[in-house]
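A note from the maintainers: we've had questions about how concatenated examples are separated. There is no special marker in the raw files; a new sequence line simply starts the next protein. For clarity in this README we add a label.
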Amino acid sequence: EYGLKEKHAKVYLACLELGSGSVLKISQKAGLPRSTTEVILTALQEKGFVSSFKKKNARYFSTEDPKRIIADAKAKAELLEKALPEFRELYARSNIIPTVRFYHGKQGMKTVFQEIIEDASAKELLAFSSIDDVFELLGKDFTNFVQKRVQRGMRSRVILRESEKAWERVKLGQSELRQVKLISPTYEHHSLFYVWGRKIAMISLKHEWSVLIIESEELAKSQKMCFEALWDSLPVPQVKDVR
């Protein structure tokens, strides 16, 4: 408690029981080596838990009144409370500035999956993808991700290039908490694009396998608007057309 580690607490209590004592006496009482005790006593003195004085050319330590320690702790808490509005303002500013992370390879893609699943604030996942490339590259990892998303109860809306795999996603939509709309296969791309919460992930699925994660409230909002505009322009696939 009060920021003291176990050994620090032992030394403080030993000093408290003795009233005052030399480093040797305190170390014996605490059951710790003399050298360790001396280092800890110096640290406790810096924190204001003990004070030192000289007696017969030897250095002695005594504890400060526990009431004073509590008073000091309260004073520090009051200072922190006064500074809280400024801290909150700085925190708010830090959230305004976008953060960007770059990964390479499959591990980076798994990082995206993990962050989506662990983000409790995100209720829906938006995606734009070439599903054939996703399965070719990620296969079982992607299937496991979908299962975890469903277990978490997180719904998704996905825009896919039309293909046999894409139509399979349409058919499995309800069981996997997914709505799907399709674009023409003539719009060739090999990428995976996610938007959730205040994050955006852009993944290249060919050659370089690059992963870019951007965290920004404003940018995520803009990308959601772009997604919604495209989503609203596309027809709902009819299940009877599933091949």
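[label: protein 2]
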Amino acid sequence: MKTILVVDDEPKITQLVRDYLERAGFGVIIAHDGKRALSLAKTEKPDAIILDLGLPQLDGLDFTREFRKTSNASIIMLTARSEESDKLIGLELGADDYMTKPFSPKELVARLRVVFRRIENAMNMSSEMIRIADLTLDVPRMRVTAENRAIDELTPTEFELLATLARQPGRVFTRAQLLDSIHGVAFESYERAIDAHVKNIRRKIETKTSEPKYILTVYGVGYKFAEK
């Protein structure tokens, strides 16, 4: 059974989310503030986290910053903040996705299933290895090596995005196409989220982010993986 840590300071919301998740077959852990959530995340090691940004003691952005130092488990931000800057900061810190309150509990469950399906699909590809120049992706193990450096920090979303691009070097993907590749369904996530994920990937795999050699920007269109 997959375990989900739900973090929100509103008991009605945590209870609503718990009901839907348990009905869908997930185990649920609840926290109402950021410090308690961080403690539970370290001891219980949840498979995914549903995280509100406006938390007492330690807000959602600070939680994500600390949590990402030790774990790549998926994070879905669940927030009343509608400002684009907050969403982008959360994604750049390592969140995989976000939903804005008021939200659909059914859609939240669907997004979690997409996250876990993505990981399971990768594990079921028993022998897929992607090698482009000095970059290697071991798809079943979700491991990346760049210039003989092991890259262990990619989240499931970041890994899937990198693999999508690397499977077809030179092909130009629009942001909408990349969103579809990582979600598989049409969610509300806006295309700027792709920019945040690409920024994270570059920070982790490139030796010089100002001059990327793997994921290249195609201005006015989207991104492509560099050809050999």
